[in-house]
Q: What sequence folds into this?
C-alpha cells in the first residue's frame, strides 16, 4: 500500500517555521553548563588552579527522531592566567562555538576573545579566601542556512508525486548568510574558599550587549536577543572523601526563560595522584509560550577527575510533552577539560567547577 506522508510533512514544516522567529534569536545551551565556563560567564576566564586550561564540549540533541540531522553543538576554549601580585591575576582566553540545527542546517559560528581580572578581597591562614572577578568577551559571529536542503511548493512535481530538486525554488534568499557581526559580553563572579575543599561562588553575566543584527532576509531587522544569566553553587565537604556540589543557573533571553538546578556527589581518594568521581542529576525548566514554566528534561551526569584531566558524560531524559515523539530520548553530551599545572607549587586559590 502506498502511504501519503505529505500532510505529516506539512505539519512538521509549519511547526518548525513557527519556531524560527524564536530559535534564530537565542543561543544553544549545554546541560553541563559548569563544564563550559567561558560560555557561562566571561568572568570565569582564568578561574582554575593551574597555569592554563583547555576545555571541549559536544552536544547531540534529538537524534531519536531527527536523525541523521539532529541538533549538534561543538565548543572549545583555552585560557591562561598570569599572576600580577601574590594572589591577584589577569587572564586571557579564546573560545569558539559551532551549532547546527535542523534539516536546513541553520548554523551559528562564533569566536570570542576573553579577558578577566581576579582580585583577592580577603584571606589568611585562619579565614576564608574571597575573590572578585570581572571579565569581558569581544568577538565575531556569523549565521547561515542551506536552502538547497529544503524544497518548496514550486518544486513539487504532481506527475511524479515528489519534489524536483532541480526546479527553481523561487526564493530570493537562497544560500543566505548573515554579515559577520560583532558580539560583546561581560560578567562578574565572586567566590570563597575555606578549609581544604570548601567552595562557594555566585556570578552574573550579560551576553550580546550590543544585540547584533542576525537577519538572513534582505533588509531584515532581526537582532540577537541579549541574554541575562545568574548562577551560584559550590562544593560542600561531608567528610574526608565525600562532598556535594549543588548548583543553580537562571537564564533569560528574549521571550525564553530557563533554569537548571541539581547537584553532583563527589568522591575523592585524596591521594597524591588524585582520582575523583562525580554522579548527579540536574533538572531543566523552561517557559512554554502561553503555558507557563514547565519541566523540560532531567540530565543524568557522571564525571571522572584524574589528576590534570576531567571527563564528563551526561544524558538528557525528556520529561515534557515531547516524550510522545522521542520516547524520553533527549540529548547526549560530553565534556573534556585539561588543567596544566603551575610551574612551581602554589596554594590552591581557585575552585574546580
A:
Amino acid at each position: 500500500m502506498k502511504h501519503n506522508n505529505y500532510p505529516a510533512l506539512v505539519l512538521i514544516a509549519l511547526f518548525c517555521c513557527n519556531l524560527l522567529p524564536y530559535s534564530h534569536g537565542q543561543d544553544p545551551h549545554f546541560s553541563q553548563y559548569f563544564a563550559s565556563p567561558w560560555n557561562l560567564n566571561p568572568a570565569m576566564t582564568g578561574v582554575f588552579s593551574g597555569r592554563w586550561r583547555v576545555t571541549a564540549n559536544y552536544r547531540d540533541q534529538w537524534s531519536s527522531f531527527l536523525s541523521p540531522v539532529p541538533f549538534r553543538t561543538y565548543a572549545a576554549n583555552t585560557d591562561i592566567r598570569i599572576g600580577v601580585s601574590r594572589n591577584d591575576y589577569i587572564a586571557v582566553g579564546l573560545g569558539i562555538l559551532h551549532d547546527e540545527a535542523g534539516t536546513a542546517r541553520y548554523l551559528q559560528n562564533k569566536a570570542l576573545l576573553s579577558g578577566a581580572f581576579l582580585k583577592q578581597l580577603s584571606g589568611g591562614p585562619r579565614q576564608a579566601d574571597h575573590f572578585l572577578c570581572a571579565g569581558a568577551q569581544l568577538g565575531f559571529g556569523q549565521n547561515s542556512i542551506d536552502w538547497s536542503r529544503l524544497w518548496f511548493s514550486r518544486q513539487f512535481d504532481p506527475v511524479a508525486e515528489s519534489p524536483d530538486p532541480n526546479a527553481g525554488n523561487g526564493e530570493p534568499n537562497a544560500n543566505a548568510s548573515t554579515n559577520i557581526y560583532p558580539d560583546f559580553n561581560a560578567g562578574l563572579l565572586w567566590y570563597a574558599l575555606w578549609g581544604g575543599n570548601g567552595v562557594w561562588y555566585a556570578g552574573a553575566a550579560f551576553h550580546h550587549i550590543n544585540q547584533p543584527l542576525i537577519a538572513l532576509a534582505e533588509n531584515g531587522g532581526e537582532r540577537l536577543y541579549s541574554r541575562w544569566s545568574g548562577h551560584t553553587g559550590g562544593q560542600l565537604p561531608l567528610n574526608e572523601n565525600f562532598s556535594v556540589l549543588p548548583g543553580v543557573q537562571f537564564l533569560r533571553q528574549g521571550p525564553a526563560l530557563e533554569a537548571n538546578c541539581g547537584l553532583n556527589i563527589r568522591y575523592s581518594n585524596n591521594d597524591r595522584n588524585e582520582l575523583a568521581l562525580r554522579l548527579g542529576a540536574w533538572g531543566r525548566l523552561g517557559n512554554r509560550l502561553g503555558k507557563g514554566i514547565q519541566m523540560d528534561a532531567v540530565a543524568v551526569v557522571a564525571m571522572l577527575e584524574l589528576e590534570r584531566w576531567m571527563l564528563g558524560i551526561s544524558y538528557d531524559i525528556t520529561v515534557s510533552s515531547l516524550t510522545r515523539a522521542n520516547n524520553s530520548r533527549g540529548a547526549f553530551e560530553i565534556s573534556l577539560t585539561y588543567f596544566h599545572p603551575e610551574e612551581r607549587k602554589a596554594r590552591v586559590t581557585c575552585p574546580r567547577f
Observations:
- The radius of gyration is 23 Å.
